[in-house]
Design brief:
The protein has about 450 residues and is α/β, with parallel strands linked by helices. It folds into two domains: about 220 residues, Amidase signature (AS) enzymes (Alpha-Beta Complex), CATH 3.90.1300.10; about 200 residues, Amidase signature (AS) enzymes (Alpha-Beta Complex). Helix content is about 35%, strand content about 15%. The chain has 14 helices and 15 strands. An eleven-stranded mixed beta sheet has the order 1-3-2-6-8-7-14-15-11-9-10, sandwiched between helices. About 55% of the residues are buried.
Length: about 450
């Protein structure tokens, strides 16, 4: 059942919010994926009763009214601990909700708890030294991706209809790729960052993670500032939209199954009315390098007050924070200058294409503990390859929609991205919904 179906059933009195929340809590109690750090069962039950009573009185908050969701444990929630997956904040209980949590609550969504993540949201495995490894629902021996790994796992395993995620270098889209879910990294600051524990002040993005593109659209419209309200129609179409396919970078060094699945999705887009055009993108390796400088410095600045507690950080995160402290101010300033130059260069791409369709990750989910993977006969670092196709859009602040486009022979999900210019989320959602319908993967992606 998706959000639209659940909303219809709720209003037809075929199911109640209390029943949906109880089902989510029951599934979460049986969960062996370690998707949650904190479960707020009693608060969720009380809120569900209130939402049912509201509907009985004729008060309808919209399509998320009474729908069980979860928040990444980086999103501050009033009266509920918010750990950022860290020992430093293990007992932190905020006095108020983050803006995005408040907006979703106002829209009627009911949070059943806080999902696990890579420590400080600073990594791609969600193997957390303080709260344990989050596991992939498709194969519990594999990572779910990160840093929003708990959110990806909870959505893919049908524990909740939606979970919030944050994305600084791919942290919504990597778990979406590895777990077979849909995740939207919106335009920078299209969803408020206020009340979200920061990693990088200039590259953090907040977005929804769901099982379908239309569910993502519903959630994004509730989360976003100045939202249009757009949700793709039942029969979304492409109507001659220009589908850009990069000649350079994005299709280099890919697993063969990933390349085939993404190119198949591009062919599908062409078959349903899209006009495929080849484009050349700016130097993505250079954009990634500048973005990495910004992230290292900004993360070190954010967590500097706590670096006297060195033993309370995981080894991988501490090493990254230490690297950030070594970067010179002149290098940081240069990275900011390069951001403006590359943004101008990349803007020229949008004069030729309405979007780009590219792979999300170069390979499917690695196994827990794997530091390197073999792609096209070459051993590569797991962290670097997982963020290689992701980081540029964080640097540039443009939106990206990640969604499934197929499976490997071993039945692991394969993900693709649809990139677009700033504030083009509605167009990306329209394209994504049309491709999702045409690929017909919905039944294959159900685990329960």
């Amino acid at each position: 059942m998706n959000i639209q179906e659940a909303a219809a059933a709720l209003r037809a009195r075929k199911i109640s919010s209390v029943e949906m929340v109880e089902e989510s809590l029951k599934r979460t109690a049986r969960d062996r994926l370690n998707a949650f750090i904190t479960v707020t069962a009693e608060a969720a039950r009380a809120e569900a009763k209130e939402r049912d009573a509201e509907l009985a009185r004729g008060v309808d908050r919209g399509p998320l009214h009474g729908i069980p969701i979860a928040h990444k444990d980086l999103i501050q929630t009033r009266g509920v601990r918010t750990t950022a997956g860290s020992k430093i904040l293990a007992d932190f209980i905020p006095d108020e909700d983050a803006v995005v949590a408040a907006r979703l609550r106002e829209a009627g969504a009911i949070s059943i708890g806080k999902t696990g993540l890579h420590e400080l949201a600073y990594g791609i495995t969600s193997t957390n030294p303080h709260f344990g490894a989050v596991r992939n629902p498709w194969d519990p021996e594999r990572i779910p991706g990160g840093s929003s790994g708990g959110s990806g796992a909870a959505v893919a395993a049908d524990l909740v209809f939606m979970a919030t995620g944050t994305d600084t270098g791919g942290s919504i889209r990597i778990p979406s790729s590895f777990c077979g879910t849909v995740g939207l990294k919106p335009t920078y600051e299209r969803v408020s960052r206020r009340g979200v524990i920061p990693l990088s002040m200039t590259m953090d993005h907040i977005g929804p993670m769901t099982r379908t593109v239309r569910d993502t659209a519903i959630c994004f419209q509730a989360m976003a500032e100045n939202a249009s309200g757009y949700v793709p129609a039942g029969q979304a179409e492409l109507g001659g939209l220009r589908i850009g396919v990069p000649r350079n970078f994005y299709f280099d060094s890919l697993d063969a199954e990933v390349a085939a699945a993404v190119r198949g999705a591009i062919q599908t887009a062409a078959a349903i009315g899209g006009r495929v055009v080849e484009v050349t993108v700016p130097d993505i390796n250079a954009i990634n390098a500048a973005g990495r400088v910004l992230l290292l410095v900004e993360a070190a600045a954010n967590w500097r007050p706590h670096l006297n507690r060195r033993g309370d950080f995981g080894a991988d995160v501490l090493a990254l924070l230490d690297q950030g402290r070594l970067i010179l101010g002149i290098d940081y300033a240069d990275a900011l200058r390069l951001r403006r130059i590359y943004a101008r260069e990349f803007s020229r791409v949008w004069s030729k294409a309405d979007c780009l369709i590219v792979p999300a990750t170069p390979a499917a989910a690695p196994k827990i503990g794997e530091m390197t993977v073999d792609i096209a006969g070459k051993r590569d670092d797991v962290r670097m390859i997982s963020t290689r196709l992701m980081r540029a859009v964080n640097m540039l602040g443009v939106p990206s929609l990640a969604m499934p486009c197929g499976f490997t022979r071993s039945r692991l999900p394969i993900g693709m991205q649809i990139l677009g210019p700033a504030r083009s989320e509605d167009t990306l959602l329209r394209i994504g919904a049309a491709i999702e319908d045409a690929l017909g993967l919905a039944e294959s992606l159900k685990l329960s």
